[in-house]
UniProtKB/TrEMBL annotation:
Topology of the protein relative to the lipid bilayer: Multi-pass membrane protein
NCBIfam families reported in the protein's UniProt record: mscL
Protein name (Swiss-Prot/TrEMBL): Large-conductance mechanosensitive channel
InterPro entries assigned to the protein according to its UniProt record, in alphabetical order: MS_channel, MSC/AndL, MscL_channel
Functional summary from the UniProt entry: Channel that opens in response to stretch forces in the membrane lipid bilayer. May participate in the regulation of osmotic pressure changes within the cell.
GO molecular function: mechanosensitive monoatomic ion channel activity
Membrane-spanning residues: 21-44, 64-87
Family stated for the protein in its record: Belongs to the MscL family.
Keywords (A to Z) from UniProt: Cell membrane, Ion channel, Ion transport, Membrane, Transmembrane, Transmembrane helix, Transport
Amino acid sequence: MIKEFKEFIARGNVIELAVGLVMGQAFTAIVRALVDNIIMPLIVAMTGQTKVESLVINIASAEVGYGLFLQAIINFILIAIALFIVVKTINTLTAKNKPAPEETPVEAPTVEEYLAEIRDLLAEKAEK
């Protein structure tokens, strides 16, 4: 059972998944800092509120708080844009590093092959 566990852990997919998870957490912290410390204060300054959490709409006797939802949307958009840029950069770099596939030259038929094909077609036509 321990041997199977070692084989499971040593698989490339599990290790790549673990690295991706750790990198995702670190990246989320960067984006959260950007949103919390730069973007949200700008939104608060434009709306005149003291905190994003206090952004609400009063409908009759109910308060609809949209501040946290707004923050979640901005976080999502920034993470999506940043991941797109990272993936696009990685794809570009890996495409440059891969050697171009060798093109196998297409061999053109020889004159004899063309003549044999014409002969066969004429023989077929004569039989019909």
